[in-house]
Amino acid sequence: MNLRRDVFQAIADPTRRAILLLVASQSMTAGAIAANFDTARPTVSKHLQILTECELLKQEQNGREMYYHLNLQKMKEIADFIEPFRMMWEARFNKLEDIMKKHKNK
Amino acid sequence: MEQKTKVHAVDGKQEILITREFDLPVELVFRAYTEPEIVEQWMGTKVLKMDNRKHGSYQLETTDPKGNKYGFNGTIHEYTPNQKITRTFEFENTPFGVQIEYLEFEAVTDDTSRLKILSVFKTVAQRDQQLQMPFKQGLNMAHDRLQDIVSKLK
Fold first, then answer.
1. Across the interface, do B7 and A82 touch by the CB < 8 Å criterion?
2. Percentage above 90 pLDDT, chain B
3. CB-based contacts of A48: which residues, under 8 Å, 6+ apart?
4. Residue A2 binned pLDDT confidence (cut-offs 50, 70, 90)
């Protein structure tokens, strides 16, 4: 399968979203990240590879260790975390408006 | 299409401000918030209790498609018809804690109105968790839409 290098592809997976939230607070090694999941280490490595290819994560060599940290600029490309929340309220309020318009005509 | 609902959530602050303009007189928007049978329709929830007065309280129960039940409740602190409601809000059995909601209803013209909801959380972390909750659902919706568009191309 040819994986598209697109941020939405990257965040479509729950494990990858969890990884992003993990490294949001501090840079971490692959081992430290994997320790947070029950999934096999190679699976986590694969997720890290995808996130790096999509440029949501950046690698940084520090001595012998490779650290992963969040690429904030790229994160901004994802429709804001707030957008789905806004959409949820927009849908609710649209419904409210529709319902009340019927009351108005009564 | 213009976005009628605006959400302000400043980084590092424990509040969310939601504003919405309605193509409705302010009285009707207020009724949509205070009459149980109307609340049930647009919020998609069951109203177990709604005692609209100072020191009154409300209790809601939502059932998901799998049959799981979710409880919500709060106490009303201020209640001025067609103007404002100040109340607490709690999503039971979740880590979000208790929030204070300040609802302000405002007439713009005779036929249009504005609603402002300021929701204050105990911590920034709780607020951020709340904002991220519909994230997954929103993503699924986006994918469904994408699928729609793509299937039409076939």
1. yes
2. 64
3. A19, A30, A33, A57, A68
4. very low
* A3 and chain B in contact, CB less than 8 A: no
Tokens of B26: 């302010």
In angstroms, the separation between the Cα of residue B102 and the nearest Cα of chain A is: 16
Predicted ipTM beyond 0.95: no
Local confidence band at A106 (pLDDT 50, 70, 90 cut-offs): low
What is the amino acid identity at position A63? Answer: G
Residues 47-76 of A with CB under 8 A from B: none
Alpha-helical segments (H) within A1-106: 7-11, 14-25, 30-34, 41-53, 72-75, 82-105
User: Nearest by CB to A92, which of B3, B31, B42?
Assistant: B42
Q: Chain B contacts of A12, Cβ < 8 Å?
A: 139, 143
Cα–Cα distance, B10 to A7 (Å, whole number): 23
What are the φ/ψ torsions at residue B40 (nearest 5 degrees)? -60, -40
> Across-strand partners of A61?
A66
